[in-house]
Amino acid sequence: MRFKKLITLILGVACSATLFSGCSLAKSFEEELNVVFMAEGDHIGDGTVTQFKNIKTPTISDAYLPDADYRFLGWTCYQENQLDLTSPANFKKQYIRGGAMLHYMDVEKFKNNKTVVCNALIMHKDDIPKDYHYAVVAWYDKVATSGIDQNKATTLEGMVKTYLTSEGVSQEEQNTIVFRGYTGNVGASTGAIMNDDDVDIMIGWAANISTTGVIPETAVLEDATFNVPGVSTPTRHIQRLTDSEGCLKVMEYLKSDEVKNFFDPQ
Hints:
It is built from 9 helices and 11 strands. The protein has 266 residues and is of the alpha/beta class. It has a 5-stranded mixed β-sheet. Strands 2-1-6-4 form a 4-stranded mixed β-sheet. It has a two-stranded antiparallel sheet with strand order 3-5.
C-alpha cells in the first residue's frame, strides 16, 4: 500500500565496497560495510562503518522537498511498505536522523555484498506518526544566550505542572508534557524544531526566529517576552505555535509574573 504523500525510498544502485585488510588479528574479524546514501536517485554520499567505527550521516538540501509542508526525517533502509506508520515508537526506530551518528548495528542486517543503501525519508508533515502530548515546550539550550540550562528547564517544568494541577489538569495529561532542549545557533535550532513538527511553544529564543531562523512568521500565533539579566540580549521570547487546549493552558502560565520573577527575581 502506498501513501500518496510519502515520496521516499527511491533505491539507488548499490556501490561496491572496497575492503582493506588489517594487519592485526582483531582487524581480520572486523567487518567493513560500505553505506551509500541516496535521495531521489541521487548519490548524496557514502562511508564505511565497522563494529568500531561510526560515520555521521549527511543531510540533504531543501531542493528535494516538494514544498514547505514536507520534512526530511533522515535515512532509512526499509522499503516503503515496511514502515510502521501506526506506531510512532516503532516508526522512529526505522530511520536515523540526518546529521546523526550511524553505527554498524544500525545497518548490519540490511547488508548486501557488504554494501548497505540508505534512502532519504521525506514525508508530508501530516503523514508523520506522532505521539499525543498535552503540550511540547521547546527551550533554547544555549544558556549564555537564553539563560536556560537543564536545571532551569526542569524546575520550570515542575512549576508548570504545579500550576496545571491547581487548574484541575489530570496527572495522566501532565505525564505527556514534554520539555525538549534545542542546541545550536538560531538557524539550526529552529530548523530542528521545524523538522520535529510537534512543538507547541518555544521559550528562550529572541525575536529573530523567522528572520535568522526558519520558523514561518505565520506559524507564530502569540509572542510574549520575559527578561533574563546577564545574557547578551536580555529580552527573551515565548512564542506559541499552536492553539491546542494544552498549549493555551501552558502558555497562560508561562506569561505569568511568577515565571517572569523566576528568570528575573525582583
